[in-house]
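Appendix C reproduces, verbatim, an entry submitted by the partner laboratory led by Prof. M.T., so that reviewers can inspect both the input and the predicted structure.
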Amino acid sequence: MISIIIIGITIVVSIIAFQQSKWFDLLKFNPWFIKNSGEYWRFLSYGLIHADYWHLFVNMFVLYSFGRATELYYELIFDSKSWFYFLLLYIGGLGLSVLSAFGKHKDNVYYNAVGASGAVSAVVFSSIVFNPLAGIRFFFIPIDIPAVVFGALYLVYSAYMSKKANDNIGHDSHFWGAVYGLVFTLILKPSLGLHFLHEIGLSF
């Protein structure tokens, strides 16, 4: 339910920002304004807006696909605290995933970023901790890829593309959002680490 609420709010705010540029400019992640004008809300608000409808669709579709499953895992393990922990997972993914970008670009007034990809990555990788062998399928690949394999490839790809830095995609945010999702979930329930290893055949 929490993920559905997040999706609904994000869609509404994104559509408003598409139509009113002043809201887009006010909410986007801009390290220079954070550093020099104290506009700290930008560490989180950028996740409510997107570059275009396709960007919005992809992020919200992935969040819908993995969000409810992750919520159910949290409900099973954390019971009444599950909604609070899920919010911390998502919001923490937004804030912490752009710290690297803030450090790199805090003196660059022209650097901007939008989209919930860091938070969505946190949710996806949290789900991988619970079910590392779940099948993930892409439209152009007719077979399921184990979630843990997808996760490893995703981290390697994001780290590599972040170092190249020759496109306009926040690969470092994807990487750190994913890492946060893994670490946060294991901090909440360290025994899940043993569960993860057992699931992939590395039990001791």
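The longest helix spans residues 53-78. Additional entries are available on request from the coordinating office.
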